[in-house]
Design goal:
The protein is of the alpha/beta class. The protein has helices spanning 10-21, 33-52, 58-66, 74-78, 92-105, 121-125, 159-171, 187-203, 209-220, 226-233, 235-249, 257-264, and strands spanning 2-6, 25-29, 68-71, 83-86, 111-114, 134-139, 148-153, 175-180, 277-280, 283-287. It is built from twelve helices and ten strands.
């Protein structure tokens, strides 16, 4: 299978890596050579870490990299694709534009998927002349580590497209859960609710970030606390999702002022080096308020 991923950021290059590791030919597309190169470097770094930990053999690393190509021209990237996955920023207008461009250049039978974590797949699909070919494939960060993928079925998604998506997810070694198109789907709706409440608790002085995260790890067996996870996802991304869920679902998703202030200050979490924690070499080393 030929898989094209549009958007070479952390989610995009992770999805391309997963596809290539499973034996598919993967093309990574973005708007310029610098971003494509950074995405491929990210894949190389992920694979190098896998080799160091004994999770990936050198032969598997080399075979995966051999199946990955970079391309800045979208039409060329999708021209022979069986599956196109967009992983561009969480903006409805941008994603619709990408969907329209993909449909104009991709084969008529290619499945067009979105990696959105919260936006309406039905609305995104409305940009297509053939909305039945659209589906949500919500991978989790980081895609090469996390097992879950939400297969989000829009109002016009065909049974054939849904079955293709589930088969693809299973084929790349992930666990699919099929959900109907609703704001925030299943995982983001619950995850964001937990994260926003944790931020409100910091804001009102109930406990600091480290203690809240420790409580959820040790008391509820979460692998990562909600505030460290917010840093990992990106505070700007979480704010965008919260704004959308607030609009769609009401006051319980209103973003806390602390989240807005941090985003305005450029404290975006892991990717900026500071959020609720200070990050060094990809690790949260101490709470930011110490």
């Amino acid at each position: 299978m030929r898989v094209t991923v549009i958007g070479a950021g952390s989610m995009g290059h992770g999805i391309a890596q997963v596809a290539a590791a499973a034996g598919h030919d993967a093309t990574l597309n973005d708007v310029d050579e610098e971003r494509v190169a950074a995405g491929i470097e990210g894949i190389e770094g992920n694979l190098a870490g896998g080799v160091e930990r004994g999770k990936v053999t050198p032969e598997e690393r080399d075979a995966t990299l051999d199946r990955i190509a970079g391309e800045t021209d979208l039409a060329a990237a999708v021209g022979d694709a069986d599956l196109v996955v967009e992983a561009v920023p969480e903006r409805m207008d941008l994603k619709k534009e990408v969907f329209t461009d993909v449909e104009a250049a991709a084969p008529d039978d290619a499945v067009v998927a979105t990696n959105t974590s919260s936006l309406s797949v039905t609305e995104l699909a409305s940009a297509l002349e053939a909305p039945e070919r659209a589906v949500g494939l919500h991978f989790f960060n980081p895609p090469h580590i996390m097992d879950l993928v939400e297969v989000v079925v829009g109002e016009r998604t065909s049974g054939t497209t849904e079955a293709f998506a589930v088969e693809f997810v299973e084929g790349v070694g992930k666990e699919p859960v099929v959900v109907r198109d609703s704001a925030g789907f299943a995982s983001s709706r619950l995850g964001v609710a937990l994260g926003l409440e944790a931020i409100r608790m910091v804001e009102t002085g109930v406990a600091d970030a480290a203690d809240i995260d420790t409580a959820m790890r040790e008391g509820y067996n979460h692998p990562m606390g909600p505030l460290e996870l917010t840093d990992l996802v990106g505070l700007d991304v979480r704010l965008d999702i919260a704004e959308y869920l607030h609009e769609e679902l009401g006051e319980r998703f209103r973003p806390p002022q602390t989240l807005r202030r941090k985003v305005r200050a450029g404290d975006l979490g892991k990717k900026s080096g500071r959020g609720f924690y200070v990050w060094e070499d990809g690790e949260a080393v101490r709470p930011a308020d110490e």
